[in-house]
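Posting here for the record, re: iron/sulfur cluster.
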Amino acid sequence: MDYRALLFTRPAVREPETRPVPPELEVQARWFAGEFGRLLRAPDGAPVEIVQFGTWNRGAGPDFLDAAVRFAADPDPVRGAIEIDLDPADWERHGHGENPAFEGVVLHLYVHAPPPGARESFTRTRNHRLVPRAQLDLARLVAGPPPEPPRAHPGRCCAPLREIGAEAALRVVLSAARHRLGKKSARWSRLAAAHGEEEALWQLLASALGFHANQLTFSLLAQRLPLHLVRAQPAAAAAWLLGLAGFLDAPARELGADDEARAWRAAAWAQWWPRRGEWERLILPRDAWRLSGVRPANHPQRRLAALSAIAGAWPSVRAVLDAPDPATVAFAALGALSDPFWDRRCTLASHPLTAPLALVGDARASEMLANVFFPAILSRRPTAWEQFLRLPEERSNRRADTAAARLLGPPAARQTLPRTAAVQQGLLQIYEDFCQRDASDCARCPFPERVGATGKGPSA
Ligand code: SF4
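Prediction output follows.
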């Protein structure tokens, strides 16, 4: 029996074909794989062209980021995010219109046209901008299982980066990493000149704990609650941070899932309320936080507890800047951070974890080394670059994985470059400088030609 015969032979009697509607995730995967085509139609029939599919957003917010879309009225593509729902009314149902993370959406795709007589719904952002819509036509789907969603489409530069050879490609990437660290060192120097090294380090470590979604909010908190205040009363640090963050004012159902949590919250409130009146104007509103898509272990409440633990262990954390071997000292200092309550909690409302979880794990410590400590150290001691080159890559860095998928292609192609933090930083820099500015699906991006022209690439 030829298996293809099983696959392709038509039945003698054909049942009328009814195509089941795939689940939303499958629609998204098939759209990203190009199965719906690039040319779509707006509800009024106007053409909408997907110039660039962008990348999967694995964090909070819309489904795809860094896409480019051309609308009939304008020959220049518009860059931004794309949201895909089965029903156009899902935008309102899911509260996207109130969510600031959806402000950058430039196209809302949907599958089902609203039935006649259905209540009219709108794709409108928090700032009342009307987002264009277009429908996906299920009839265009190809048969077969849904594709394994790639993280991002490999770009046009994969070939030239491969053709110049691994050594030259590494030089290009490390040169980009050096450029990136230079910019971060300049930021460190500006901040240290304005506020002193201690406060600069405090603010940048806070920002690193905010992850991508809440970086700015963490920086703001560290500015409003400077290190010298926190260190003057370290026992109150967690209460003050969570209080200023607005988390201690949350409704009762969000505060304390059990006796231990309620006791912690009561003790924190006792430390917070004498300050609350004085600092009330500085308390962050609830919508300052982006919580959707944030993993429980990365919840801002837990990250604020980590920040307060950093303040409590400040001399050993600060010592990283002067250490002959910064990585060893940083992993030891940050890995030793602990708190009897927060070691086993993700939020005030969650139940205790069955096993303790590091307040600052190795991945976060690597990220702090690459983004905070080494830029600061390099501004005083340029020879530390050699140490930075030996820093292992940060595990679970989604943005770096996306950049690698765009620039280098499938994971096997990545094996030619070392798995170091420097390579990750270099790929991220190229991604930000070229991919995130391109709206032509690589067609007009100058990077591939530049890589090809340099042949061996610039030296690191
Ligand atoms: S936009 Fe440029 S740098 Fe990015 S993947 Fe395409 S060709 Fe490469």
